[in-house]
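Morning. Coffee machine broken again, so started the prediction first thing and wrote up yesterday's gels while waiting. Chain of 51 residues, entered below exactly as on the submission form.
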Amino acid sequence: FYNNHRTHLALNKDSPIPSPILKPPQDGKGKLVSTPVLGGLYHTYSYDNVA
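Came back before lunch.
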């Protein structure tokens, strides 16, 4: 079992499933949102559209 979000020494500090590079929306109207994982031990980030 691999945690898909963290790095692994056996994989040369890479994750088993690469994550896409997070880029802000081109119009500059996106809001960066943090989502807790494992009770807040890790966080994932995404942009929400702001109207």
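The two ends are 40 Å apart (CA to CA). Going to sketch it on the whiteboard this afternoon.
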